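Recap from last week: sequence in, structure out.
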Amino acid sequence: MNHHFPFSASAWRPSRRAILQAGLLGSATGGQVVRAVSGVAGGAAGFGSAKRCLLLFMWGGPSQLDTFDLKPHAPREVRGEFAGIDTAVPGMQICEHFRRLAPLTELVTLIRSMTHDDPAHLSSAHTTLTGQLPPVNKSDDEPPSRRDSPHLGSLAAQFLKSSGGLPPAVSMPWHTLHPAAPGGTAPGQTAGWLGPVADPLLVTGNPAVPGWSVPVFQLADGVSVTRLDQRRGLLRSLDAVRRELESPVDRMLSDQQSAAFNLLGSTALHAAFDLQSESADTRERYGMNIHGQCVLLARRLLERGVPFVSVNWHNDGQNFWDTHGNNFQRLRDSLIPPADQALAAVLQDLRDSGLLEDTLVVWTGEFGRRPQITAANAGREHHPWCYSSLVAGGGVRRGSIYGASDQIAAFPRENPVSPRDRGASIMHALGIPSESTLKDNTCRPHVLYGGRPVSGLFGGT
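Predicted structure tokens:
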């Protein structure tokens, strides 16, 4: 039977682009949770200490020697141009340009023994963001696919629910890509085999620009929230007719359209993303730049009930933290200052509000840089064998250093930590049992831990 209605479907339905961007289209059978009967990690230090996570991904690979693992006694062609400065933790020095972070180091643990063997941006980004090896390792040729492992935010969202109608996982301000890599966009930034329905909500654009608002929440010209509600009522009035004709996928789409309406019309959601409600002093403290304002927005979302927020270093037109040339000038002038300012501001605010106790903060790149400086252009090449990360809150030890590198930060000297171990540590902190699995859209179960939680990161100071 054919049914004809005197209006176009596009008159009431959100655009496919809006629904896709909101992460509302996906597999009808993906993402089934199979929880472990007994989580053996439950008694371990730090298990379930975190209720939320902020992942700050410094896309491109920050130099360990010029950030958190300086080697002042190494040869000049290794130690570089930057001096170390004392911090709030006796014996812990960091780069002189992290001057805002220095007095807050009593809140963090520096990991100086991160290591893996993948020098490619794209595949190592997948491992960093998912805690699992990619389908094709050591490759800048392989673009994202639904064979990828899910982003850590997508995994966390299967266990930690958001509140107030907010999305369970948010990523901003773009999907990282490398313009010189054949694969382009880095894999591991979506829900992968969980299906698009579990993708983190991608919030794009520059929140530092006056008048910025979340693109995916914008209604079509002339459409008010009231009119949106009228259209939703019209959609509901068609349910009886549609139910006779729908396939299971159609019914799933109907549910997701309803969810899209809820997103588009949610006043709580719009309020959470309203940076204009922050004082001018607060916004300046985070930095009136794209990274600073994204981190401020991330803090607002975490405070209001989003369990997982990731902020990717933005496209600054200079190939990000990938400092093959002019390493020191770029770090000094355009990379470290906004990163330092935003990290210090969010740590301070989370501490002052009491949220740092159960908020895990992770600052990392996909690898580090080669110790030997390239004489021709003062750059450092890719070096995954030893690099640094920073973690704080969520049951992590405070004011400590975990692991150590050798005399030139070329290889770990003790307590090596892989990105898979760090991913497992994130899930451990969030209380996701190590025996839990998730099913993909073929009902195949997948283990969630690609490594082992690093017990030495957790516990007392």
